[in-house]
Amino acid sequence: MTKMQLLYLIVPLAPLAGALAAGLFGWAIGRRGAHWVTILLMAVSTAASGVVFMDVLDGNTYNGAVYTWLTSGNVRFEIGFLIDRLSATMMLVVNFVSLMVHVYTIGYMADDPGYQRFFSYISLFTFSMLMLVMANNFLQLFFGWEAVGLLSYLLIGFWYTRPTAIHANLKAFLVNRVGDFGFLLGIALVLMYFGTLDYAAVFANARTLAANTIEILPGEAWSLMTVICILLFVGAMGKSAQFPLHVWLPDSMEGPTPISALIHAATMVTAGIFMVARMSPLYELSETALSVVMVIGAITALFMALVAIVQNDIKRVVAYSTLSQLGYMTVALGASAYAAGIFHLVTHAFFKALLFLGAGSVIIALHHEQDMRRMGGLRKYMPVTYWTVLIGAISSAGIPGFAGFFSKDAIIEAVRLSKLPGSDFAYLAVLSCVFVTALYTFRLLLMTFHGPERFHALRAGPEELEKAPEHTDLRPGGFHDDHGAGHGHAPHESPAVVTVPLILLAIPSVCAGWVIGPVLFGGYFGNAIAVAPGHDVLAELGKSFHGVPGMMAHALSTAPFWLAVAGIGTAVYLYRVRPDLPGAIKEKFGLLYTILDRKYGFDEAYQWLFGDGAVRFGTGLWKGGDVAVIDGVFVNGSARAVGWIASVIRYLQSGFIYHYAFAMIIGILVLLTMIFLA
Amino acid sequence: MLTGLPLLTLAIWIPIVFGVLVLATGSDRNAAAARLIALIGAILGFAVTLPLYARFDPLASGFQFVELAPWIESFNVNYHLGIDGVSLLLILLNSFITVLVVVAGREAIQSRVAQYLSAFLFLSGIMNGVFSALDALLFYVFFEATLIPMFIIIGVWGGANRVYAAVKFFLYTLAGSLLSLVALIYLYTVSGGSFSLLDYYQLPLPLEPQILIFLAFLMAFAVKVPMWPVHTWLPDAHVEAPTGGSVVLAAIMLKLGAYGFIRLSLPIVPDASHTLAGFVIALSLIAVVYIGLVALVQADMKKLIAYSSISHMGFVTLGIFIFNSHGLEGAVIQMVSHGFVSGALFLCVGVLYDRIHSRQIADYGGVVNTMPVFAALFMLFAMANSGLPGTSGFVGEFMVILGAMKHGFWYAAAAATTLVFGAAYTLWMYKRVIFGAVASPRVAALSDISAREFLVLGLLAVAVLVMGVWPLPFAEVLHTPVNDLLNHVAQSKLR
Fold first, then answer.
1. pLDDT (tens digit, 9 = 90+) per residue, A215-255?
2. Which of residues 401 through 430 in chain B touch A, CB cutoff 8 A?
3. Interface ipTM above 0.85
4. Which DSSP string corresponds to A511-564?
5. What is the pTM of this model?
6. Measured between CB atoms, does A157 come within 8 Å of chain B?
């Protein structure tokens, strides 16, 4: 084993070791022991992935098996690593954000009785996510895919006494399973046609199988690649919360804020994006699949952003923002601008983790208050949080110079150049979404940090309470009970374990975009991403790219910039200049408001159709099928039939000799008659 | 050292002899002695199966560790034993589960202890007999003999409605298997007076008798698996059975039917198996989907897990009848995994039942607050039941779905619905029982699992994880028998 191979192993195994130490022996090593061991091992893993990253930048790649998981037929299922620019980038981002979140957790979860368990979970999550991105085959991808889903389930339900949390985690798991249903079928098709699940072998043969068709419905010959790619994308729709499987992500905010940042913003939800980029050699062979991806992404980007405008829970705003940004990444994939999608994934990981952790900082300062209507004016109490969140917000809104600008602008431009069916709609969606993004982001910033201080109000009035999200009244057990509602005294800035990660995330939220030149237009991803010549919108875009300053200067004369400015301006006008207006608009456009407030009714519809529907159907099958027909008619029926026949036959056994003698004589007579007449 | 020993005979008769010894301790005054002897017998029984794996040659075709001695010479019946990789795994599973059941029954069973423990030891030996018999009559005798101890276990140590359940169990399965005896006697006649399964494998048969034989076997094995629609005995039997009975029933006895398909139906009547495969596949897929939905609405934990078992066994029969190596190997892997997982889940319910004496989901809620260690283990098994990768539950389902895809897209799609249904019924139950605030004073008074319970569940947890992370050792012994069987089944017997 070479030194690099050892490092590849250390990257995922160090967090696994930390998870086992904190999870199995947390009772022995205590709270401090748990956070020290997991953070140290996370640091080791981050350092190792840094070395791997540098090595990959030198042009080295690796593709090899660790061990054979299973053999069957003539297929070997292996666990192995593929280390190239794509996976190395993901490893570094995952590890960096995870390390920040580990440190931040010391502050955020300080009073939680499940402290060691939490550290164990987030380290185990990191292990799973690393295995996912490092995989060199579909099997291990699916392993990581499901494992991160498990950890997401466990972490959303971390405060397991809260009814909303344990509803949300079940919902998240099941919706993801619907996606995995498609994903697994896609993998099975890959195995069936390629005879292997190894990426390299599959991608090498993809072109030769591109002309194959498959009859899913009798008489309908569909392109094999289209079917495979769409099935795989169904998995991505679950994991990356794309419409219409997006419903679990907002509810996942029931989990502690550090995991909202780590899992439900920066890493796990981007697994679908990563997967499609990884599968680019397959997707490039199906324009139909690319169109589907682009349209789904565009719908998600725009319509989820609209919902964010009317949310009052600070975490929910960020959650819907995440949905929308994931939509952007998906649109990029559909436009064959995979590199732009991954680039936005990276910048988003930084500024969205920053926004979540900033929101978390506010939430702890206000003793687990999440309703923005009870915030305001926090700027002067929490300067570090304010400034870092401001950076995150600017980056998110896409103001030139900040990381989010570069990646988002590249996506919008790429979509503009795409010629696939649906690209016009997608372009319109992502463009108008820029305005919406700036509006909700600054609405959040203004409602939280500016304006009058509303957190002193002990409790909101009744009319406001009934509109407040139901879960804000539920506190995780044992939290800050001594503070009462905690609104009595002034909030203060969070401790260093919280603010230092904020600062460390704020830096790349500004700078990460400056490498756009080499990353998007310099062939950074090399062979890790394949783009068909006719689809290469980024190359097209690269022709007019003349460095970072040029791109920024050019942006000032384009629509996205002015839309962003308009969005910010609208937010300032509505929430600072004329704070009476939002209420009036809400009154005037009551129907629209209700639609957005109810999130288009997906939750209710799914609950009625799938939740209650499955229960009704299952009850029908059970009571009607098993109990009434199978048991009632056949099983107990045949028992009754036997009883009835026996009760008839019983009359023959009367026990009286003369009955038997009489029957015998009759019988003999009949026999004799038959013999003689024959 | 062990080379000369008849290991299969030992695997069958050690548990039975120890069962007799346990029975000899008599009344409950000697319960301690009975438990000790039973434990020694179970461990010894497991110990003799380990050399089977160690000395098993995974590359050799045919049966290994063969023992052949005349039994009833006038009818040419032989005491003929031998195993391939399929039997090997099931014998190991059976002997392993027996140890756990003997350990687990320690506190729950306080009356007629010796009789209880001996019933399990008898059962264990008899089932090893089924898994190693190569003589048709011997197979039939062992197969039917399993009914007696289980009938007694349910009927004596069962719940309130135990008599109905025990009789239903007995008659249902007996009625199913009687026809298979007729089929075996027919085969005895046409083969010119042989009961050897190996002779039957080579016996040419026209299609019509093949189909009749297949249907006779199907009756016997489908009830045992159980397949939809002859499954309704299982939920009743599980609900009334004591914990140990449920564990053995789910973990081992259900495998007898599937094993019968592999050992008898496919090789003896390959053409009929092909002809009627579509029918069996349809029943299997109904089991996966229909039963998955029925499991969702159960209010009784044991019933829920029983229905879940039927759904999971649907994967086994599906895998067997799609005739490819992913499917068939997946089916056997699924059998072993289901042994671990369903056994563990019934033990988990037993842990709760021993404390609160209710199997109703509604009587629980918030158990994690008082039993965190138990909740963690239960979570692992619930996830394994949902087929999560990294647990044993994933491996078999994954392979069968891969195999089903080769058979046709919609077969795989129907099977893959278990990803949603399996997770839905398992995790919804878990949520209502384990999560939440403490639901009642009875839950508040719960104490976490004892060292003994931890040992039993911990061993199963290790098994579930090892098999999930590294299933290769389990699959390796299957390649040769599965390939041989598929080659055999591919050749027509119509001459």
1. 888 888 889 999 999 999 999 999 999 988 989 998 888 88
2. 401-402, 404-406, 409, 412-413, 416-417, 419-420, 423-424, 427-428
3. yes
4. HGGGGHIIIIIS-TTGGGS---GGG-HHHHHHHT--HHHHHHHHHTTSHHHHHH
5. 0.90
6. yes
